[in-house]
Predict the structure of Citrate lyase subunit beta / citryl-CoA lyase.
Amino acid sequence: MRPARSVLFLPASNPRAIDKVRSLPCDVAILDLEDAVAPEAKSDARAAAVEAVRAGGFAPRLGVRINGLDTPWGEADLAALAASGVQLIVAPKVDDAAAVRSLAGRVPAGAALWAMIETPGALLDLPAIARAASATPLEALMLGVNDLAVGLGTGAAPDREPLKPWLAAAVAAARAHGLLAIDGVYNDFADADGLTAECAQARLFGFDGKSLIHPSQIEPANAAFSPSAEEVAQARALVAAFAAPEAAGKGAIRIDGRMVERLHLAAAERLLARLDPGR
Ligand SMILES: CC(C)(COP(=O)(O)OP(=O)(O)OC[C@H]1O[C@@H](n2cnc3c(N)ncnc32)[C@H](O)[C@@H]1OP(=O)(O)O)[C@@H](O)C(=O)NCCC(=O)NCCSC(=O)C[C@H](O)C(=O)O
Ligand SMILES: [Mg+2]
C-alpha cells in the first residue's frame, strides 16, 4: 500500500491551488468536486479536474472527490472522468456497503475507490462497508469529521471526545480488511499546535494519515505519520536481538527488561521496510 500520511484536499475550481499542488510534498492530493465547490461552479470544476488528471505531472498521487450519486452532479462527474485515466476516486457520504458495491461497478476501470465515512448510517455499517473490499476496488476508509459532527449533533468537542469510539471502530474495520484508515480534517489551519496534537491522537488510534485542507498542514502530518527516530532505533535493536545466536529457536526474548515476541519482530521489519533508503 502506498503511503497516505498527508491527504490534501483542494477545490477543483481553484486553478492556483491546482498549480501549487503539483509540487507539494503531500502523499495524496484530492481535487474536490463536492463540498468545496459551489453549485454554480460544479460544471467548470469538473472540466478543470478532468483537464488536470489528463495533464498529469503531479508529485503526489492524484485523486478526485466526486459528488454523491444522489445529487444532480455525481453521475456527470463519473461520466466525465471515465476516460480521463484517473487512478483514485473518493466517494463522499458512503452510507452503507450497498453504496460501495454500486460505486465499484461505476468507477473508471483500474481506479481505486476511497469511501468517506461521514454519516451516522456509515458508522453503523462500518464492518460491512470494509468487508465490501473483498469484491471491489475499495482501498481506504476516510473519515469526514465535519459532516459527522453535524450528523451526530456533537459540534466541535474538546479532544474529539464524542468521536473516539468511532475513530477506533473505523480503524478496526479498515485493519480487518487490509484498508488504509485516513483521519478527518483539522479545520483551524492556522493552529499548528492543535494540528500536531490531533495528528498524534490519530496516530495513537492507528490511522495511517490525515486529511488536510491547507499546504501548511503537510509537513506536520508527514512527520506525525512517519516512524520517529526512536521507533526506528527500537526496531533496529529488536531485529538485531532476534538475529543474535542466543535468540535462535526462541519465540520470545527479553530486551531492556521487556518481553518481545516474533510478532514484534515482524512489525519492526515492516516499519524498517517503509523507511526511505539511507534513513
Ligand atoms: C481554506 C482555504 C479556503 C484557505 O485559502 P486561502 O485563504 O487562499 O489560503 P492561503 O492564502 O493561505 O493560501 C496560500 C497559497 O496556498 C494555496 N492553497 C491554499 N489551500 C490550498 C490547498 N488546499 N491545496 C493547494 N494549494 C492551496 C493558495 O492558492 C495560495 O497559493 P498562491 O496564491 O499561489 O500563493 C483553502 O486552503 C482551501 O480551499 N482549502 C481546501 C478546502 C477544501 O478542499 N475543502 C473540502 C474538503 S474538506 C472536507 O470537506 C472533509 C469532509 O468532507 C468532512 O465532512 O469533514
Ligand atoms: Mg464531508
